[in-house]
Amino acid sequence: MISSTGNARVKKIAEYAKKAKARKEDGVFIVEGIRMLREVPFDLLREVYVTKHFMENVSGDDRKLIDEISKSDGATLEEVTDDVMKKMADTQTPQGVLAIVRQNRWTLEDMLSGNALLLILENIQDPGNLGNMFRTGEGAGVTGIIMSSDMADVYNPKVVRSTMGAIFRVPFLYVDSIPEFTRKLHNEHGINCYAAHLKGKKNYDEIDYKKPSAFLIGNEGNGLTKEAADAASEYVLIPMLGKVESMNAATSAAILTFEAARQRRN
Amino acid sequence: MISSTGNARVKKIAEYAKKAKARKEDGVFIVEGIRMLREVPFDLLREVYVTKHFMENVSGDDRKLIDEISKSDGATLEEVTDDVMKKMADTQTPQGVLAIVRQNRWTLEDMLSGNALLLILENIQDPGNLGNMFRTGEGAGVTGIIMSSDMADVYNPKVVRSTMGAIFRVPFLYVDSIPEFTRKLHNEHGINCYAAHLKGKKNYDEIDYKKPSAFLIGNEGNGLTKEAADAASEYVLIPMLGKVESMNAATSAAILTFEAARQRRN
Q1: In chain A, which residues have pLDDT < 50?
Q2: Residue A132 contacts B where some CB pair is shorter than 8 Å
Q3: Quick one: pLDDT at residue A266?
Q4: What per-residue string of b and e applies to B170-206 under the rule 16 or more CB within 10 Å gives b?
Q5: How do beta strands B213-217 and B192-196 pair?
Q6: A144 touches B at CB < 8 Å
Q7: How many Å apart are CA A151 and CA A147, to the nearest integer?
Q8: Which residues does chain B have within 8 Å of residue A239's beta carbon, measured at their own beta carbons?
Q9: In chain B, which residues have their Cβ closer than 8 Å to the Cβ of A139?
Q10: Closest approach of chain A CAs to the CA of B68, in angstroms?
Q11: Which residues contact A240 (CB under 8 A, 6 or more apart)?
């Protein structure tokens, strides 16, 4: 039982909630709430913290999961006071259970088995947008997500929550140069890389995505850099009616990947 | 020049930023920033407040717009101190220009001229989601948005910002009963109303949306109520791969309305 908010471990965990650097150094991140805990692959679980109130109320399959964790060699289970939970958690009203989870390591090969469908994200800044792209991407059958190193951290608690568990299932990679990596995907792996772009000559639904494909999506405010757009095999246009000048980044990703999914079903 | 944050008008405007009730009583809402000000139909503008710094830096077409406002009979232009602007604005870093805008009144007829494509939203709570549905909806050619009266207020400053101006162009209505209104749309106006639902037997892309159509979208956490889903002409399924159980509400709306737009183009 940890009851002091001054406890070194508690302080470290509060740091994980706030700082990408601390998470990166220790190769971990935070998962909050029973719903997200259910999604964590068991071998990635390291520490689970629970409140008394949570333990008194957990039942059914969730009870079984907690029992399994308490008996496992790989993960620890420890009770903490409400105050300690509040200190560790990122949310205003913590849900009584919080886990420290090992960061997964993926490789490009993880993304290219089968018929690749990739998202290449450049400088996405909004955590909700990023998390949503994981969630939507998984639903559309995306086989991997490539991200620029200047982006929102995928292990930010708000991103983790918004993925609804997809963070554990969709392989992802950070790369230093989106243009270089895009060219590599095309030249070495035969993947057609499409940039959603207002200068696209073809509508996005006039292209065949049954072959290995990737979609380049740019920053919320500025779109893709010229260098990244130039590295694409082709520009595609999402035609917009009214006076709309652009789509939200996650919305563009949804429209494109679900068009690919539609074609691949038919 | 208003320099006192205790000024009655300033206090009233701060109330508009925070309270739906105050906005409703006076039939107005707040628009912040020059980018959004450009989108406001001139006849809806009532009061525009600017800081000294803004006036010293505004140029080009924006300067012309401000000059036009200062000369107009319908709208007032007044300078305020930075402190007063901060007090009135909803944002942490106000952009130096803020307008009080009259709420628009739409009717169902505004939505049904031409080939109707409607969104029927039930109990959407997230302002960003709601704003995004206006923006995406306009891009897809949505002719109107019907909302349940228990939803996020469309005039909430965060919703207004997220619409990127679509709030001025997409007709919308609040209704007391979504099930009743849905039946009315179908029975009296011949509009097919589709509920995005996990029990859908047909995939969403197997349906003909070239005829007048509407999509029912439910609350972020709970989906559609049984009553609303029952009122639909048909359930449609957005097939999801992986372990994804549901899509974000705005994402579902984007996938459905852009499929309708795709069919209507072809």
Answers
A1: none
A2: yes
A3: 85
A4: bbbbebeebbebbbbbbeeeebbbbbbbeebeeebbe
A5: parallel
A6: no
A7: 7
A8: 261, 265
A9: 238, 240-242, 244, 247
A10: 22
A11: A246, A247, B138, B139
> Do B142 and B214 meet the contact criterion of CB atoms below 8 Å apart?
no
DSSP B75-134: -EEEEE-HHHHHHH-SSSS--SEEEEEEPP---HHHHHSSS-EEEEE-S---HHHHHHHH
Q: Calculate the CA dihedral of residues B162, B164, B170, B171 and round it to 10 degrees.
A: 60
Close Cβ partners of A181 (under 8 Å, ≥ 6 residues apart): A120, A146, A175
Cβ separation A255–B254 shorter than 8 A: yes
Which residues are B219's β-sheet partners?
B223
Query: Chain B partners of A166 at a C-beta cutoff of 8 Å?
Result: 242, 244
Residue of B128, B170, B244 with shortest CB distance to A128: B128
Q: Report the candidate in A40, A260, A251 with the shortest Cα–Cα distance to residue A141.
A: A260
A30-to-A37, A45, B205 alpha-carbon distances in Å = 10, 10, 38
pLDDT at residue B90 is higher than 80: no
In 3-state terms, what secondary structure has residue B250?
helix
Give me the phi and psi of A173, to 5 degrees please: -145, 145
- Cβ(A51)–Cβ(A96) below 8 Å: yes
**Pair of tokens at residue A5:** 């908010």
Quick check: B81 pLDDT over 90?
yes
From chain B, the residues in CB contact with A138 under 8 A are 240-244
Q: What mean pLDDT is predicted for residues B248-263?
A: 97
Task: Please state the pTM of the whole predicted model.
Answer: 0.94
Within its chain, how far is the Cα of A96 from the centroid? 23
pLDDT digits (tens, 9 = 90+) for B147-190: 999 998 999 999 999 999 999 999 999 999 999 999 999 999 99
Structure-block tokens of residue A212: 């290995």
Enumerate the residues of chain A whose CB falls inside 8 A of the CB of residue B251: 132, 135-136, 250-251, 254
Give the chain B residue whose CA is nearest to the CA of A263.
B205
Strand pairing report for A234-237 and B172-175? unpaired
Beta strands at A97-102 and A28-32: parallel, antiparallel or unpaired: antiparallel
